[in-house]
Structures are given as structure tokens and as C-alpha cells.
What does this fold into?
Amino acid sequence: MNTKQNSTRIIRKLMFRLLPVQILLALVGAINGIVSGYFASNYVGIDAMSAVALYSPLGMLLVAIYTILAGGCVIICGKYLGSNQQEKLQEVFSLGLMLSMAISILFAAAFAGMSLFDLTGIFTKDAVLRPIFNRYLLGQAIGLIPLFLGNQLPAFLSMENRGNRTMLASLVYILVNIILNYVFVQVLRLEEFGLSLASSLGLWIFLLVQIQYFFSRKSLLKIRMGRFSWKRCSEIVRIGFSGAASTLYQTVRGFIVNGLLTAYTGSIGLSAFGSANNIMSFFWAIPGGMLAVSRLLISVSVGEEDRQTLCDIFKVMFACYIPLMLAIDALIIVFAGPLASIYFKDTASLVHIWMASCLRILPLCMGFSIMMMHFACYGQASNKQVYVNVLSLLDGVVCVGLFSWLLIGRMGIQGVAWANVLNGVVTTLYIIFYACFMKKRFPRSLDDLLMIPEDFGVAEEERIDLNLSSMDEVVKVAQQIQNFCKDKGIDDRRAYLAGLAMEEMAGNVIEHGFHKDNKKHSVDIRVAHKEDDIILRIKDDCVAFDPQERNKITAGDDLVKNIGIRMIYQMSDDINYQNILGLNVLTIRI
It folds into this structure.
């Protein structure tokens, strides 16, 4: 296996290791919607399901806002993590949480006020549906604070390699939500208010399980009250907005589609499409989890200016993520009828027939969306604001809104479903045509399609990428590094030290890290010549090991003990160690 193939293998392994936690996190909201929909349609009535559908655009607005905050914080923090700026990392982490808290309190107060004073006429004029919607909205207001904060923390837990805590919080939330829905709706007969209250109280549990870690001694990230500048809020929003703009536009799209469905298909169409979206939200958790993993890795890669890793992320997306999603899409289409029966058991009813027809069409857009979201995320991290905002506007509202308006009169509810598929086709063409325009030619590689700047990172001729899988290769690779340094005009002393540093540090990983478990490991090495410095980066997927800690621990011991590590620290200009998303990354500047 060559070096590039091994690099892709490491990234693929990392992405799929992080994926289950992120999918489970995305499933929290989806399962909440499905559970609410199930109890609404089976124990409250079809009007309650209409209330859930009416709330959907508002819920999408909240998702857009907390995605802006979480996305902006994660991208900024990822760059600081990649460049090892710990103090700035702590500042943005704390500021993001405080900003989320403030905004969630404002929305909670607004929702409660609209509900209690019957100010929801802008959402529905129906005299029967409106009080039902008011009660549902009040229950949702109670859970807005943990909704915002709880969706900030998972990315930072992943940064600290604590994704299992998010998984635990998600499982606890799902269990609590089901139990509370049964108690509030079926036993206590709280109807619509019980539906939303169960979800809100579950979100508080979800938050508490996660946030307690950041108050423990184990956490590297600390919540620092007052030790940040509120002026940086605009930076978080600016960077986060482009990535979440599509979700924000989907809020507008939701209102447009609801209006078209009400006008052309009535409450039955509104309930059928809303129910189909509820079921689809369960499966949308998979692309959502994929994007959450990629967002972390993309932001760190941009911070490190690591062109190879950046391309590897997209290779995994095309070769693994999209084919996996297409297989799942096929299953949704095959089982569309049984899935519709979760909400509407009468298979002969119009609402069941319409819902099933939507479930046979909507999955076709998911592969397109995975591609679109990844390109938008990279554009967001690399400050391609115009590109991302146009892409988000097309995906979020223009295409679906326009195609729905054109097709619903001729095709009914199926026209709205097909509008989502056509939206995916248009956004894919936009990505390709924009790259053609910027590169003045048809894209020939991922570099071209991503429009990676020529000065991004270190030029290929100024670096070498190597891979080690056994101790027998260490001496040979050390000699390759020395020869590379001499070819770049580096003096003999520093060339020798570069080879020695790799031999000592990477050899230590192979000797100790490879045998800690029964898994297959490798060491990925990059040597770069930049501004007359030699930068040596050693990356591995073994257990966490900080050579600086070993250097400190043995400082007063026998002089020959760990002499290699001591010598490297004495002779190098700068050494930084980080454990990023479960990978050990050691950078040595000589």
C-alpha cells in the first residue's frame, strides 16, 4: 500500500470510528420527531399531527441558529486546534456556550409569550388548530436552552476523544423521551402540551449528561466565565452562517411548501408530507452525522494546511459515504408502505397513500445532499463566502420552492417530493460549473473541484510523505529524510537531526503503541521544507502518548533513560503534541 493509499485508509478509519456517535446525536432530534408523531397520530389525533407539521419550520429555524453557533465555534476551534493555539481555543469554546445560552433564553421567552397570549395567527388562522398549536409551542419553549447548549457540546467532546459520553447522553434521552411521552400523553392525557413537554424534559437530561464532563479535571476545555470578548460573536456568526445558511433558507422553504400544500392538498396533504418528513428525519441523521465528522476534520485540515488529508476526506465521502447512503435509500423506497403505516394504519386512506408516495421519492435526493453539504462545509472553512451562500440559497429555498410551485398543480403532493430531487441535480451542477469558471477548465481532480489555492500548505516538491508499518523500515526512512533535507540545502547537522528525530519518535510509537491492542496500526510521516525550516509531522492512530510528559517524568532519573526523547527536545526549535480526534499528532520544527 503506497503512502497516499495509507493516508486515505487512516482518514477512512477515523471517519467511520467517529460516525456512529455523530449519527446517534443527529438521531436525537429525529427520534423525538418520530415519537411525537407516533403519539400525536395514534393517541391525540390528526390535528395534533398538523400542529407538529406547523412547528416544523420553526424547529428548522432553531436548527439553523444553533447550527450557525455550533458550526462557527467548531470551525474556529478546529483551526486553533490544528495550529495549537490553546488559549484562543478556550476563549471561543466558552464564548460559544454563553452566546447559545443568551439566544436560547430569548427564543424561549418569545415562544412562551406567543403561546400564552395567542399571538400565533401568523402560523395558522384555523380556529380549531390554533389553540392546539399554542399548547404544543409552550411545551417546546421549556426545552430551548438544553436544545441549544446540548447541540454545542458533542463536537468538543469528540475533540477530546469523549464521543462515548455523547452516545450515552443520546441513549438516555431517547429512553426518557419515550417514557415521558407515554406518561404525559397516554396516561395523564396532556395531549399536545404533553408531546412537547416530554421532549423538552428529555433535552435537559441530554444536556446534563454531557456538560458535567467539562467541569471535571479530565477536561482540557474549560468553561471560563468572563474570560472572553463578546466582540468575537460576529466572527462566530459570520463563519457559521454560510454553513448553516441552507438550513436557515429551509425555514423559508418550509413556510412556502406548507402554504402550497395547504392551498392545493389541504390538511391531509400537510399531514402526509409532514409525516413523511418526520420519518425521513430519522434517515437524514446519517448524512447529518457524516457532515459533523467531516466538519471537524475539514476545519483541522484547513488549520494545518494539510492538502492531502483534505482530499482524503472527500475521497471517503465519494467512495464510502454516498454508496452507503444509496443502499439505505433503496431500503426506504422498498419499505415505504410499512413506514407510512407507523403513522396511518389504514393503508387505503388517502393520507397513507400520499405519505407512502413521498417516501418513494424523497430518498433520491440524499446522495446529492451529502455531496452538497461537504462542499459547502469546505467553502465555509476556507472563507469562500459567496460560493457557499449561493449554494445554500439554491439548496435551501430557490430550487425546492420554485420546482414545488411549478409541479404541485400538475402532480400534487408528488410534485413537492420531486422538487427536492431536482434541487439536488441543480446544486451538483452548480458545484461543477463554479469550479469550471474559477479554474477556466473542466475539473480534472479533487484539487480542481475543491478549488484549493496553489499556495495552500507546502508545495509537493517541498515535502515528502512516508509511511511506517514495522521497525525494520525505520532506519531506511530516516536515511530518506536526511537525503531530502540535503537536497533542499539544509546543513548536515539539521539533516541528521531530522532523521534522528523521526527514528526516535516514530520508532518509539512502533515499539510501544503497536502492541497495546490487537489492531493494525501505521505511522504517517510528513517532512516539509518551509522558510529554511524543516517541519517533521508524525501522526499515528495508537493509544494517546505525549512524549513531553515522558520527558518531564524522567527529567531527574538515570541520564541514559529515555535519552533519545531528551536529546530531541534539547536540539529541536519547537515540539508540539496534540491528540486530535483520537490521532496522535507530533510536530517538530528544526
